[in-house]
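User: Could you write out the 3D structure of this protein bound to 2'-deoxycytidine-5'-monophosphate? I've included everything you need below.
Assistant: Certainly. Input first, then the structure.
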Amino acid sequence: MIQPRIVALDGPAGAGKTTVGSEVARRLGYLFVDTGQFYRAVTWLAIHTGMINADEESLTALARNANFELRPTGDGSVYRVLYQTQDITDALREKGLERKVSKIAAVAGVRAALTPKYRELATAHPKIIMAGRDIGTVVLPDADLKIYLDATLDIRAERRHQQSQSEGRLTNIEDTRNAVADRDKQDSERAVAPLRPADDAVHINTDHLSKEAVIDQVMAVIRAWKPASATIGEVH
Ligand code: DC
């Protein structure tokens, strides 16, 4: 079976990109890269260096000079994020940080600093699934396959709420819903690389699908993929 080398996986917060993308990557032998983690990592660094309210130029320099190391875990499909040997992966999911990340991700210079790093990763790996908001539209517009995962706000908020609870964090559904709505608004209304599906993306609405069912659908789309030349060849 010929598989797409680069799969772009976009969609709003809570649509299931990380859960589904990492599992599909594990099963099909891809590296999974979640670009949201890099915006989170820059936000973490900005908080820890007292620069969270700094101007665009300083934040851009911070993003450009920061070296986050990716350390693969056992199966090679996912990795841990290290900053100067410190494993910051778990800290990247904290709520305090989450409230600030959309603001950092909207800074044009921060995006300009990180986007080439994503492209390098895509070039360096033989098979990669890259998740984010603008992968199919801006980062890798020539990706072999583009998938856009979506779900309604209520369902995404409910999933985030359940996830937080299962991780032992106390959250309230209304606050979670407001936080997800706020991130949707910031991610889709920003001037640079806003969240939107690429014209040639395959859409999957996950509202009424279990996690397993979404994984199955994404795997089916990847397995059904044909190189562009083969597709053209089949048109009669
Ligand atoms: O997917 P996530 O929740 O980890 O993303 C964190 C933030 O980064 C979120 O506000 C959207 C932003 N982001 C982005 O602007 N572009 C990407 N390619 C990935 C994430």
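Residues 13, 35-36, 39-40, 101-102, 105, 132-135, 183, 187 surround 2'-deoxycytidine-5'-monophosphate (CB under 6 Å).
User: Perfect, thank you.
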